[in-house]
Design brief:
Helix content is 78%, strand content 0%. By secondary structure, it is mainly alpha-helical. It has one domain. It is elongated.
Length: 138
């Protein structure tokens, strides 16, 4: 199994993505979800989306990131976590472009590309909890 370079590369990239997304959520929760949400909503108020909708999404964001990050780091329900992460990036991009924050949208597009590649290559996900349990397309 450790001779499978594709599986090793996939596991390392999955860990990098998982830890990155986990860190976003964990440290936002640790430093206060309200502080994050209320700070970020100020930028969102420049766009056409209703304040209450933006604020609700921003309050949920750290928990979504935390859950996705844990699942990806472990390689548990990897395919579903990658699909969820992709949909989450689409939602973030919609909000970011509504405020014409093109730099933020570009960063989110980079994350979307990583999610795409990871989902495209999910069959290499053998070094994971899913792989240990014999699950290929979960």
């Amino acid at each position: 199994m450790l001779r499978d370079h594709k599986a090793i590369a996939y596991a390392l990239m999955r860990l990098a993505l998982g830890i990155n997304i986990f860190g976003h959520g964990f440290f936002r929760i640790l430093s206060g979800v309200g502080a994050f949400a209320n700070g970020a909503v100020n930028g969102m108020d420049k766009g056409p989306l209703p304040h209450a909708l933006s604020l609700a999404f921003l309050y949920a964001t750290p928990f979504i990131e935390l859950i996705l990050g844990i699942l990806l780091t472990l390689g548990l329900f990897t395919r579903l976590a990658l699909i969820g992460g992709s949909l989450f990036m689409i939602a973030l991009t919609f909000g970011t472009t509504s405020t014409q924050n093109w730099n933020g949208a570009g960063t989110q597009l980079q994350y979307s590309l990583v999610f795409f590649v990871m989902l495209w290559l999910v069959e290499a996900n053998s070094l994971s909890v899913d792989g240990m349990m014999g699950r290929k397309n979960v």
